[in-house]
Design a protein that fits this description.
Strand order of the largest sheet: 5-14-13-12-10-9-6
Number of helices: 7
Distance between the termini: 40 Å
Radius of gyration: 20 Å
Structural class: alpha+beta
Order of helices and strands: HEHHHEEEEHHEEEEEEHEEE
Strand content: 35-45%
């Protein structure tokens, strides 16, 4: 969690005295490097590692104690923001649905390894993603890293402007009327930073007039779990709501 590194950063720039109720604190990669240059371990001074705070628990102590989280605003620039930056990924207690693959033959290669990508690909190949969304027209069209166009949004009524931030979706599917973006994990995730869903959502909204939806996907205990999240206000980071969730056993 690199609490010592972030304490040094806060001390150097007196960030603890900043009025976060009024506006975020903008910090650059160069500022982070300057404040941590005397740390000997790579993970204590590498910007990419220090700024990776994908769950509430991954935040440094000073962030947790002050209800802060980190958002990238452009390449090499971040906003330290006060508020709720994360969304819960709740356990799914509904009855497991038995799903019969529509593929028609066995995939031997899908059994090799245990990665989040292969589980997602198997779910798509079996038409589980199409079934969950009730959309047989979905085809894989998006994968990998891209950079966002310029857009703005609010967190606790504070305006954030971001441009050319790198995003990555594990898979994106386009159908006749909608675009589906998926964040996939391979562990029992309790919460995740909203940014991983929100930034791609805002990004692809600008490229299509079709409805953009976001899913969170995991394989847990041999079950394929899917959560569907929506943003009730595209300009509000915290307008995220869970609209649907199911877990399946594929046979």
């Amino acid at each position: 969690m690199n609490s010592n590194s972030w304490k040094a950063i806060f001390d150097k720039y007196q960030i603890q005295n900043h009025d976060f109720d009024n506006m975020p604190f903008i910090i650059s990669a160069e500022m982070i490097k300057m404040a941590t240059k005397y740390f000997k371990k790579t993970n204590e001074r590498e910007v990419r590692i220090l700024c990776k705070q994908d769950s509430r628990e991954n935040r440094p102590e000073i962030f947790i104690n002050n209800q802060l989280f980190l958002l990238p605003t452009r390449n090499g620039e971040y906003a330290i923001v006060k508020g709720e930056g994360y969304v819960d990924i709740p356990d799914i207690h509904s009855t497991v649905k038995i799903y019969k693959s529509k593929l028609g033959f066995k995939l031997d290669t899908s059994l090799v390894g245990n990665s989040e990508m292969q589980h997602l690909d198997f779910a798509y190949a079996s038409s589980l993603i199409r079934t969950f969304l009730k959309d047989d027209s979905l085809v894989l069209t998006i994968r990998g890293r891209k950079y966002t166009p310029k857009f703005s949004f609010k967190v606790n009524n504070q305006m954030i402007i971001t441009e050319s931030v790198q995003t990555e979706v594990d898979a994106g599917y386009e159908g006749k009327n909608q675009v589906i973006l998926i964040e996939a994990k391979n562990s029992s995730t309790k919460n995740t930073i909203i940014r991983q869903l929100f930034y791609p959502y805002r990004q692809w909204q600008q490229y299509t007039n079709k409805q953009v939806k976001t899913l969170f996907f995991e394989k847990r205990n041999n079950f394929y779990s899917i959560w569907q999240y929506e943003f009730t206000n595209p300009n509000d980071y915290n307008s995220i709501i869970l609209t649907k969730s199911e877990r399946y056993e594929i046979i």
